[in-house]
Design a protein that fits this description.
This protein is of the alpha+beta class. The protein is about 55% helix and about 15% strand. One of its GO terms (biological process) is division septum assembly.
Length: about 110
């Protein structure tokens, strides 16, 4: 297993990666970074952990809403998506933020 260094929202991470999976991992990191930066830039959240949880929820939502794509066409279809493309509507994001704030209200920790 190989290790690669990546940056998400300006923070460096050293991630384990199976041989031959570097490009897929870098694509995933780009998606997570784009999602987290979009949430941060909206100005509604400042805490990195809340941004990460909301980004994970948004990405999971997108995955459950998308029909499975054949492996050959998936890479070409995802290549040139503009930042923020495919995000849920702002009302959905606001609702998630409220639910997240409520869940974290007691001690600031999700788990």
């Amino acid at each position: 297993m190989k290790q690669i260094e990546v940056s998400i929202m300006g923070q460096s991470y050293l991630l384990g990666c199976p041989d031959g999976g570097e490009e897929r991992l870098r694509q995933a990191v780009t998606q997570v970074d784009r999602e987290m930066c979009a949430i941060r830039d909206s100005g509604k959240l400042k805490a990195r952990e809340r941004i990460a949880v909301l980004a994970a929820l948004n990405l999971a939502y997108l995955l459950t809403d998308r029909p499975p794509a054949p492996a050959a066409t998936q890479a070409s279809a995802e290549g040139a998506a503009p930042p923020g493309a495919g995000l849920p509507p702002p009302e959905y994001i606001d609702n998630l933020i409220q639910r997240l704030d409520h869940a974290l209200d007691n001690d600031g920790h999700l788990i």
